[in-house]
Amino acid sequence: MASMFTRVLSGRNTAVIMAGLGAGTLVSSYIMTESGVSAGEKKKLYPPSADYPDLRKHNNCMASVLTPAIYGQLRDKLTPSNWSLDQCIQTGVDNPGHPFIKTVGMVAGDEESYEVFAEIFNPVIKDRHNGYDPTTMKHPTDLDSSKITSGMFDENYVLSSRVRTGRSIRGLSLPPACTRAERREVERVVVQALSGLKDDLAGKYFSLTEMTEQEQQQLIDDHFLFDKPVSPLLTCAGMARDWPDARGIWHNNEKTFLIWINEEDHTRVISMEKGGNMKRVFERFCRGLKEVERLIQERGWEFMWNEHLGYILTCPSNLGTGLRAGVHVRLPLLSKDSRFNKILDNLRLQKRGTGGVDTAAVGDTFDISNLDRLGKSEVELVQCVIDGVNYLIDCEKKLEKGQDITITPPVAQFKK
Amino acid sequence: MRMDSSALLENRQTPHRVHTTTGKIGIFVSAQSSSSSSTPQPTGTAAMPFGNSHNQLKMKFSSEQEYPDLSKHNNHMAKVLTLALYEKLRSKQTPSGFTLDDVIQTGVDNPGHPFIMTVGCVAGDEETYEVFKELLDPVIQDRHGGYKPTDKHKTDLNPNNLKGGDDLDANYVLSTRVRTGRSVRGFCLPPHCSRGERRAVEKLSVEALGALTGDLKGKYYALKNMSEAEQQQLIDDHFLFDKPVSPLLLASGMARDWPDARGIWHNDNKTFLVWVNEEDHLRVISMQKGGNMKEVFTRFCTGLTKIEELFKNKGHSFMWNEHLGYVLTCPSNLGTGLRAGVHVKLPNLSKYRQFEEILKRLRLQKRGTGGVDTAAVGGIFDISNADRLGFSEVELVQMLVDGVKLLIEMEKRLEKGQAVEDLMPAQK
């Protein structure tokens, strides 16, 4: 049975409808106009070479990987929700990058983007995730927090502990591509599920469009509020459209479990607390995630996930676990030691300022977290952070006593 | 199976199946095929870039579900776009695939200001004004002083029709300038064009401008190729334009692929300047120090007419029709797209309590010398025509010339401590 919807034509244009061949009832139409040219005609006038972006001054993963051949193959493909290659790469074209920081330079508009545009996503993923090959490798998911050992840090050094990830709702487009209705549906689905959380996870939702001045101030004081993105990396990808429609913040009453809705991903899930009890933070994280998953499944929804890419998120850098486990830790002596960066490297850890990514450290307190996202499970990554931070604290203590430290050998990569 | 059957998820599964078996779906028509075998696919209709190209997907949601929340908005689009109108127009697209949501995205993303009324919508191509006329006609009417959908706009680029204008007092008028925009028919406008189209517009423009002679002869500086020295010179001349930072422009997609295919052309005398692919295909500017508007306007008309001729020689005309005049990206620039203005010293008059009223009656507008949204410095104002549509170019420049003459006269009176009430103009 055919169902068709036709475009309403304005009087000036003449429509030429051509019937398709074959057993199907596929019909396509090309619209000729006196002055304007139809999209179908444009394809003939502008071959892929005419549209190929100028990436000579660019330094991002997308620019390193894209060739005219790949562009030619993919330019005219569309995902089922009509998302195109140009839309995936727009942010990377608009933001050439930085000589020292290599950004990813492309985003997914929906789950199928990673499939339809695999020819470019796979090499980008490989570049970003240390050689991980989605065509041959499988990503392990493990949210069993009971496996964690030594998860209690010395609180003379560790001020706070935090684990974050993201989750996407299968069947709805991602933030760069979603329509207003889809975004509102994400909000509805997630908020409904969250309202089913109980006990220490019970909490409340604050919609960005409806929150009171007072609620807003409280959220700012708690450091929970997120604002409209200003980074051109995000705005060029279209994630800030229709702000603040269907965006909001949910947190439990104890303020240790927090969810952002429709910011850079459908959801960002954060477990945190003051002090060094990373084991408890991760335990709550896993429990909360599983509970939310159960609640959405009750209503016929699920998270985007597959065995090669793990959890599907908007930015390829967040595939796999999407997990960043970190601490705010004081390392006054170690941070001044010339071996600090090498130690971090070998431990597969990354340092940031306590304001988050791209901020500088204040005083001697650093945000230390895992570098990797894909190819290792959640448990492995959190354990890696725990072991690594314990080692850093050990070094700090040694330096306090005037003893020497050693550079730890590099941690094993994922199994190829 | 599901307690709460979500229509969304069910609807989404069906097209998913359709798409994977039958491949690409034409922009305008789609069908579910019962045969899953080798149905030939239409040669791709890759949605021309940017914005919500997946209009078909949205049709599965109700209008209420998709309708933007405009409750905190104050722009022309928000005043006009009711749910009923949204419902009527949302299934439409222009031939190149520009949709209603594309038109209004900038207005949705920028609620506006309690005191300044922005337009809140843009065109992606010439046909936008036709396909979405039910939205754009009322917006145009509101923005352009009651201009009706049946009105005709007069174009007059004959500088001989301008009376006077060659003797604005140079003790007060520091500089004189006329600008407009032009769109090249057959290409999508900056919010919607592909890289290929934008480059084609650049190439055409550079070729056309390269054929100018005499005092109009000049040179093109592509933004992505210019040397440090060239860039500095253009900055010193106040010619260089930069990547837009205004969210009004960014939200409509005009800054995509910056600085690809953008550039500045100017004549050797530095009195005639063309911006390529900034907010419009072309922005054309004639300017010079002092108060000789006649000369500036003459060069403006001559230059524009020559450029139009050169484009025609290459088989391209400018977007124009007898109702909307010259068609540009923003509805506020329709008609003439003309802003004729001067930088003029009015330290006394600007403090006079009736200053705003005088400007209003003369159909003039004030800005700071940094351009739109800047404040005046040292009593020096940018005074220009407020109208764009419904008056011809000559009429608008005439109003500016006559108006500025009066303002200077009033300034001189106030300098001497004399009264100016008798000079108060009637509403034009």
Automatic annotation (TrEMBL), chain A:
<keyword id="KW-0472">Membrane</keyword>
<dbReference type="GO" id="GO:0005743">
    <property type="term" value="C:mitochondrial inner membrane"/>
</dbReference>
<dbReference type="InterPro" id="IPR036802">
    <property type="entry name" value="ATP-guanido_PTrfase_N_sf"/>
</dbReference>
<feature type="binding site">
    <location>
        <begin position="160"/>
        <end position="164"/>
    </location>
    <ligand>
        <name>ATP</name>
    </ligand>
</feature>
<dbReference type="GO" id="GO:0046314">
    <property type="term" value="P:phosphocreatine biosynthetic process"/>
</dbReference>
<keyword id="KW-0496">Mitochondrion</keyword>
<feature type="domain" description="Phosphagen kinase C-terminal">
    <location>
        <begin position="157"/>
        <end position="399"/>
    </location>
</feature>
<feature type="binding site">
    <location>
        <begin position="352"/>
        <end position="357"/>
    </location>
    <ligand>
        <name>ATP</name>
    </ligand>
</feature>
<feature type="binding site">
    <location>
        <begin position="324"/>
        <end position="328"/>
    </location>
    <ligand>
        <name>ATP</name>
    </ligand>
</feature>
<dbReference type="InterPro" id="IPR022413">
    <property type="entry name" value="ATP-guanido_PTrfase_N"/>
</dbReference>
<dbReference type="InterPro" id="IPR022415">
    <property type="entry name" value="ATP-guanido_PTrfase_AS"/>
</dbReference>
<keyword id="KW-0418">Kinase</keyword>
<keyword id="KW-0067">ATP-binding</keyword>
<dbReference type="GO" id="GO:0005524">
    <property type="term" value="F:ATP binding"/>
</dbReference>
<comment type="similarity">
    <text>Belongs to the ATP:guanido phosphotransferase family.</text>
</comment>
<dbReference type="InterPro" id="IPR000749">
    <property type="entry name" value="ATP-guanido_PTrfase"/>
</dbReference>
<dbReference type="InterPro" id="IPR014746">
    <property type="entry name" value="Gln_synth/guanido_kin_cat_dom"/>
</dbReference>
<keyword id="KW-0547">Nucleotide-binding</keyword>
<dbReference type="Pfam" id="PF02807">
    <property type="entry name" value="ATP-gua_PtransN"/>
</dbReference>
<feature type="domain" description="Phosphagen kinase N-terminal">
    <location>
        <begin position="44"/>
        <end position="130"/>
    </location>
</feature>
<dbReference type="Pfam" id="PF00217">
    <property type="entry name" value="ATP-gua_Ptrans"/>
</dbReference>
<dbReference type="GO" id="GO:0004111">
    <property type="term" value="F:creatine kinase activity"/>
</dbReference>
From TrEMBL, chain B:
<feature type="binding site">
    <location>
        <begin position="339"/>
        <end position="343"/>
    </location>
    <ligand>
        <name>ATP</name>
    </ligand>
</feature>
<dbReference type="InterPro" id="IPR014746">
    <property type="entry name" value="Gln_synth/guanido_kin_cat_dom"/>
</dbReference>
<dbReference type="Pfam" id="PF00217">
    <property type="entry name" value="ATP-gua_Ptrans"/>
</dbReference>
<dbReference type="GO" id="GO:0005615">
    <property type="term" value="C:extracellular space"/>
</dbReference>
<keyword id="KW-0067">ATP-binding</keyword>
<dbReference type="InterPro" id="IPR000749">
    <property type="entry name" value="ATP-guanido_PTrfase"/>
</dbReference>
<feature type="binding site">
    <location>
        <begin position="175"/>
        <end position="179"/>
    </location>
    <ligand>
        <name>ATP</name>
    </ligand>
</feature>
<dbReference type="InterPro" id="IPR022415">
    <property type="entry name" value="ATP-guanido_PTrfase_AS"/>
</dbReference>
<feature type="binding site">
    <location>
        <position position="283"/>
    </location>
    <ligand>
        <name>ATP</name>
    </ligand>
</feature>
<feature type="binding site">
    <location>
        <begin position="367"/>
        <end position="372"/>
    </location>
    <ligand>
        <name>ATP</name>
    </ligand>
</feature>
<keyword id="KW-0808">Transferase</keyword>
<dbReference type="InterPro" id="IPR022413">
    <property type="entry name" value="ATP-guanido_PTrfase_N"/>
</dbReference>
<feature type="region of interest" description="Disordered">
    <location>
        <begin position="1"/>
        <end position="21"/>
    </location>
</feature>
<dbReference type="InterPro" id="IPR036802">
    <property type="entry name" value="ATP-guanido_PTrfase_N_sf"/>
</dbReference>
<comment type="similarity">
    <text>Belongs to the ATP:guanido phosphotransferase family.</text>
</comment>
<dbReference type="GO" id="GO:0005524">
    <property type="term" value="F:ATP binding"/>
</dbReference>
<dbReference type="GO" id="GO:0046314">
    <property type="term" value="P:phosphocreatine biosynthetic process"/>
</dbReference>
<feature type="binding site">
    <location>
        <position position="238"/>
    </location>
    <ligand>
        <name>ATP</name>
    </ligand>
</feature>
<dbReference type="GO" id="GO:0004111">
    <property type="term" value="F:creatine kinase activity"/>
</dbReference>
<feature type="domain" description="Phosphagen kinase C-terminal">
    <location>
        <begin position="172"/>
        <end position="414"/>
    </location>
</feature>
<keyword id="KW-0418">Kinase</keyword>
<keyword id="KW-0547">Nucleotide-binding</keyword>
